[in-house]
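The freezer alarm interrupted the setup, so I double-checked each line after restarting. Inputs confirmed:
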Amino acid sequence: MMPVLGYWFGIAWLDAILRLAVIAGVMTVVVIFLTYAERKVIARVQQRLGPTRTGPAGLLQGVADALKLVLKEDLRPTTADRWVFELAPFMVFVPVFLTFVAVPFTRDLGVRFLSLGLFYIVAVSSLNIVGFIMAGWGSDNKYALLGGVRAAAQMISYEVPLVLTVLGVAMVASSLDIRVITERQDVVPYIVWQPLAFVVFIIAGLAEMNRTPFDIPVAESEVVGGPTVEYSGIRWSFFQLAEYSSLFVLSALGADLFLGGYIWPFGSNPPGWLQLILILVKTSFMILMIFWVRATFPRLRIDQLMSYCWKVLIPVTVAQLFFNGLVLVYRWPDILLLVFSGALLVGATAATAVAVRRAARRPRDAQAVRDRRLQYARGA
Amino acid sequence: MLGVLRSMLTTLSTTMRRPVTRQYPESHRPIPERERAFPLLLWDHGVDEPYCTGCQACERACPCKCMTVTMKDNPRQAEGTSKRRKIVDTFWIDYGRCMRCNICVEVCNFDAIAMNNTWTGIELSAYDRHDLVMDLDELLALSRAGGIVPWAEYVGEENQKLPPRAVQAARTLAGRGPA
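Predicted 3D structure, all chains:
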């Protein structure tokens, strides 16, 4: 969040602490206003007004909510596993915090610029599965445990296509440094060469963040909030904080990787303020897309979710990697990247459509699903 | 799969529409003419005194006994400015007890009482229930200020066929004040 002009005060540990404090502050502010933005956007989709009373146009609603959460009593069930229960929110939050470190916002604005930044983000972002499982197990509550296991299944599955799409971009840019990847997009953003990767990135990202329509682990109507069911007050707010900051980080990352980040369409080195505006506009665009999706689609069933990941997303992303490799090794023209990726996107869409139609038309399958549910209900 | 795009378009189109929310305390919906809030007394603008003679017909008919009425000789009858021999002296209605049954309006021989069909008859919350006991001045204030067109006016003999809004429009066009 500050220019990398060497250490502040020239003291390494003080510099590190300052940077972490800045991230914590920025994250809190971002989360507060993202919750406000989400409520406003979803209200408009439903032809409501959303928050209007707290501050001008309801702008301080997030602040009020945050204050309320901080002041609320922090409860722990008597049968909970004390340390696992109390540490779980931080295990969810810290990985998101860590991903924030490596995302460049402009050429000079970022916390740390790592030459293996993409690899680092992929590595730390999947760690919060541990937190969800800890929350689910530590709560000593069957809904929480179910939610935690669902979270683990879903996030491990969707981590794979997410990594594969990011890898596709890294192959085209032949770098894992996010700044290098962004700056290779000064003429054409990678969404053009890798449309499939972009779409899969958003879908898998939604699943990684447990957002609708992939909010199965925290589904209110099924597992009453899943791993977070027993949490209240500041510990619950850490889950919230993690969810919205990962939304922000993922959107910023998507803007950097696919939409040309702070470079496109203003040539290779626009002035600093323009870079900041560009990245903010693109990040907001990604976030709005995600809100829009949330306002539109109902939740998937868990078997649909799993088969969609393993039968559709992973095969097509692997195929895309393969074709990328062919194009890059044999130095075929770049347009073939677009052709292959686009064809795969169309193919995956068509295949999904056909599968959905068939499933809808086969009453026998529906009957089988009902039977299986009955068996579960009877404890078979 | 086209359904996905179609549903996204649907939500986009609802986003473009105007929100239906009313910011209630700041903006009010119009109330129907037949709204039956609490009863109040009407002011005879022609003679400049209440219609009510204090005959206590409403008080006797009131099922929850929320009214108290007294009567006096009308001093203006002696002056010759009014034809009413008796006139209301004091009038209390406990809005906390009233159940808005409309019986007082039906039994009134002088069409002197009407159900309030404005927002003032609805937004009456008070910290003390004694504040809900209305005296004569409070009961007459709205009608005296011309703030109410009682529902009975809409269904007067000459207006039987007309829909209420047409009556109101005609009244406004004729430049006659309400009631």
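Quick read of the result. The longest strand of chain B covers residues 86-94.
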